[in-house]
Amino acid sequence: MVRRIRTKPQHARKPGSTVVALCGLLTVLGFALPIILAIYLSADSRPLGPRRVTDVIERFLNQGYDLGAVATGDVRVPRLFLPRIPKDWRGLVPADKRKQAFVILILPLVLQANEHVYADRQRLLDLAAQKKKGKKASAQDQGWLQDLAESYGTKAGDLKELVRRVDVIPPSLALAQAAIESGWGTSRFTTEGNALFGQWTTDDGNAMIPGDRDQGATHGIRRFPSLAESVASYFRNLNGHKAYTKFREQRAAVRAKGKDLDGTKLAKYLASYSERGADYVEAVQKVIATNQLAPLDEARLRSEVGPTLLGVLPKRK
Q: In the predicted model, what is the mean pLDDT of residues 118-144?
């Protein structure tokens, strides 16, 4: 026996009701569509990860960030940290405008990395002073020293070597190298993988393959989750790799004389950073001089610490 389901009778629509409903819908869309489009088109102006370079620069300028004033020491650099290069970066012309924008965007990241290193250095120097007085480090300090030594590729008990490695890098030097290695931010390794310093890796899962790589070569350019991670890795590279021992020794010698670190002079000890050797050193020094980066060695971040507008920094290791 088939069971039937009783349904309510449907009422016929009145003639013209469909037309009236359609007209009403079009009227609503006429008012709503411009609003929807405005919201969609303004999506790039949201706080995190803006895509347009003009939006990014405007945010920096609204914070009173002016390179000329920073160079003279009149103002400090705001704590704004860009997670990646804006997608329309290559379209920023002329070249001198792009160069200035590159320095504006990368300088805060370099200064923040230096702050991290400086804080570790001060704690390290305190522990070294206590050791000279015959005081034994606490279990917590010993654990911290062990972690620090591992991250810098040396032994925890060799405080002298740790002090030599745990030190800041002049911003002018870091900015010049980043400019050369990334083509002032235009390299695909930078735009696609946040690689500012052209660091090599043999990890296939984390490498971008250069188009001109020699046959049989196995290296690639290491990619990073953010620009800040790239800067942090560059610091660990210069401060830990054996190829830059002379760089660290010269920096320590300058410290011992009580003088300020000079990016142009320290660049002389980075010939091993590139296959170009001495030509690379000359190129770094030329970028520093031509773009007047040396005064930025005295730049500092503002003391107030608040939520960043443009992204987040990596966790300290």
A: 94
> Where in the sequence is the domain holding 214, given as residue range(s)?
64-298
Exposure on the CB side of residue 245, measured as CA atoms within 13 A: 5
Confidence of residue 208 (pLDDT cuts 50, 70, 90): low
Residue 222 inside a domain? The answer is yes
Count the domains in the chain: 1
Q: Is residue 126 included in any domain, yes or no?
A: yes
Q: Report pLDDT digits (tens) over 251-286.
A: 999 999 999 999 999 999 999 999 899 999 999 999
The pLDDT value given to residue 314: 46
pLDDT confidence of 182, banded at 50, 70, 90?
very high
CATH code where residue 254 lies:
1.10.530.10
315 in a domain, yes or no?
A: no
Beta bridge partners of 208: 221
Domain annotation covers residue 39: no
Q: Which residues of 245-273 are buried (b: 16+ CB within 10 A; e: fewer)?
A: eebbeebeebeeeeeebbbbebbebbbbb
